[in-house]
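[agent] plan:
  1. take the single chain provided in the ticket
  2. run structure prediction with default settings
  3. attach structure tokens to the ticket
  4. add a short note for the reviewer (M.T.)
[agent] executing step 1
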Amino acid sequence: IQYLGNPPDKQAALKEKTTGGYKALDVMEQQLLQHNYIAGEKFNIADIALFAYTHVAEEGGFDLGPYPAIRDWIERIKARPNYVVMGAR
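[agent] step 2 finished; step 3 output follows
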């Protein structure tokens, strides 16, 4: 939305995709309320894959406020010793 705008002819599709995005965040939140990482207690490829989009979800119009476990997970990943900011030069 931030980068492409919100054209009237795409609003229904955007609403559908947004609903799906929040459903995915709900699933992630429930998992992260029980575990430190997406697939359990160890950091793995699932965390890398989901972090890529989740840490910038707010740029896409998603509110991460209601998802404290996701916010904590994002900070855990950023605190990892080999974390590199995406797009860093």
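[agent] step 4 note for reviewer: The mean pLDDT is 89.
[agent] ticket updated
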